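The authors assume throughout that readers already know how a fold can be written as discrete tokens. The format is easy to grasp once an entry is in front of the reader. For illustration, here is how one protein appears when written out as sequence plus structure tokens:
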Amino acid sequence: MITFNTLEDQNLAELTTVFNLAFSDYMIKFQLSEQAMAIKLKSENISLAYSAGAFENGKLVGFILNGLDTIGGKQLVYNGGTGVVPDQRGQRLPQKMYEFISPLLKNAGYTHHLLEVIEGNEKAIRSYEKTGFQILRKCGCFKGIVTGEPAAGILVAPMTDPDWTILESFRDIEPTWQNSTPAVCRAMEQYILAGAYIGSELTGYAVMDPVNGRIKQFAVQPEYRRKGVGTALFRYMNQKSQTGSINFINYNETDTGAWIFFEKLGLERFISIFEMGMTYA
């Protein structure tokens, strides 16, 4: 018999095991260590007390991991992962978990929901649409080894105690939840933050998780674009990556200039995702 409850009593080891089993046959390889799961829970502000679990005779077989935050005056819920172990699929468990957890979230004032789903995963998209989600925007995911040469006269160096107001002013697009500034700041000790300088002028920055080479954020001041600043930043991060390569997930497709830049660097787009949203009245 399947029952539903929150995840606040689940330990990290069990949660990681079930997460990896649920994603064992996913469209892309996606497995986490316990350390990586702990970082995910921290950076995405996952609240296990407001996350849903499906249980068969007391054993966790499905989950929705919900991150909570208040952004722009809105209390937002971010779905940091929905999964069901293979032998329990076909029972509409994701929709039933939403039916269980949504009233708890609504009563706490959280009525705006966000999630991400891979383009082409039609089964998941239909399931979320039946729950009430709509597609908000499309983002691309890139990976590879940086091949471009930086221009002379650009110094890339670590940054400490950054002024995020200044850094965010360099951006043209708003990052998705897991790449947002609050998410980055919550786990900053895990990341590398570097700035690109021409003389004493800060012209751009990038943030990366060196363990998996994932770029969390990057931006270049508009007046310094197409002058080698971005290339210098990405080459620096590629050198610091423990994988010998870099990757960038969920970058908004409306920034077509950045997509062209990624390809010129030697990065390939390997998947696209949809950001979906739902609002309760």
In short: The first strand starts at residue 2 and ends at 6. The mean pLDDT is 94. Residues 135 and 274 are 6 Å apart (CA to CA).
